[in-house]
Amino acid sequence: MGKKNLDSILIKDEKVLPTTESEKLSKKVTKPKKEIDDKVISLKITATELQNMKDKAGRLVPLSAYIKDYIRTQTNLFSKPTSDE
Question: pTM of this prediction?
Fold first, then answer.
């Protein structure tokens, strides 16, 4: 391997102070905290139940997304319990 001559490269040393506009753009925007799905649960099902679920979910939808969507839309399992008093 031969050495390359880097004498023709010019290095510019520019020091630019940020303007007030760029300071505003660089500030971190804080969004309101939103609940994220970060808790994990597991359950065991039979092979037949798994196959039936895969058939219902289809090839393109992950099973966990299908189950979560089904529970959220078809049941009230995740909603806050209300008192009957």
Answer: 0.53
